[in-house]
């Protein structure tokens, strides 16, 4: 009782919620997922945890919000397909133009620039997923308990795509492996952006 009274007005009387006050926080799907995540941590058996996860899955599918502002987590086959499409849309121009080769040659002689290029890729992907707030992205069941699956997915798919397509199309020569790696790294910058956006924008 004391906790409930503490949420009322200072005179102890009931106060009706102000539905017209835009500053008053209303619970949303994000709050629901927070509560379910806390529940998953407190249950004792694996069957109960599986029930909580199933509830989270159903809640995610039942969202009736627009494309933006949804709660997303995990990385499944549909996410992988969307990331592949996005990485190809951003990557094909990089494959067919000579600029990728030229920039690869440039950073091949400058290891610090090669490192900066890869750091940029990581920062851009993480920024789109977790900072730009396109969607409410939640880290769920991370790899080894710390690595977000979605982050790994939107980096791995464009990386593999770049390796395969650039090799098949003769855009890299693995007789010079260091140069080939640098050229793939250059292509990976926009491809990781495309993969992250492709994963998030369809919701």
Q: In which range does the helix fraction lie?
A: 55-70%
| Distance, first to last CA | 41 Å
Can you summarize the main beta sheet?
2 strands, parallel
Would you tell me the structural class of the helices and strands? mainly alpha
Would you list the SSEs in sequence order as H and E? Answer: HHHEHHHEHH
Rg from Cα: 23 Å
> Strand order within the widest sheet?
1-2
| Residue windows where pLDDT falls under 50 for at least 5 positions | 1-24, 64-69
**Helical stretch count?**
8
Q: How much strand?
A: under 5%
Mean residue pLDDT: 76
User: Quick one: overall form?
Assistant: elongated
How many β-strands, per DSSP?
2
Number of domains: 2
Question: How would you explain this protein's 3D organization?
Answer:
A two-stranded parallel sheet has the order 1-2. The chain folds into two domains: 64 residues, no CATH class; 132 residues, no CATH class. The longest helix is centred in the last third of the chain and has 24 residues. Helices cover 64% and strands 3% of the residues. The N terminus is likely disordered. With 203 residues, it is mainly alpha-helical.
Features:
single chain, 203 residues, mainly alpha, two-stranded parallel sheet, 8 helices, 2 strands, DUF2391 family protein, membrane, DUF2391, transmembrane, transmembrane helix
């Amino acid at each position: 009782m004391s906790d409930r009274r503490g949420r009322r007005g200072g005179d102890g009387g009931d106060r009706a919620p102000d539905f017209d006050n835009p500053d008053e926080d209303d619970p949303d799907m994000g709050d629901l997922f927070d509560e379910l995540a806390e529940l998953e941590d407190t249950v004792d058996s694996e069957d109960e945890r599986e029930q909580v996860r199933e509830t989270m899955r159903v809640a995610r599918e039942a969202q009736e919000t627009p494309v933006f502002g949804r709660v997303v987590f995990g990385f499944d086959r549909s996410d992988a397909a969307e990331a592949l499409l996005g990485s190809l849309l951003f990557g094909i121009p990089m494959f067919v133009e000579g600029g990728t080769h030229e920039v690869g040659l440039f950073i091949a002689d400058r290891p610090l620039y090669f490192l900066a290029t890869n750091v940029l890729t990581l920062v851009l992907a993480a920024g789109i997923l977790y900072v730009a707030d396109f969607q409410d992205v939640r880290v769920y069941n991370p790899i080894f308990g710390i690595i977000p699956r979605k982050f790994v997915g939107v980096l791995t798919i464009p990386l593999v795509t770049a390796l395969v397509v650039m090799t098949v199309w003769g855009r890299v020569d693995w007789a010079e492996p260091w140069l080939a790696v640098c050229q793939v790294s250059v292509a990976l910058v926009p491809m990781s952006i495309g993969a992250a956006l492709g994963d998030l924008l369809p919701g």
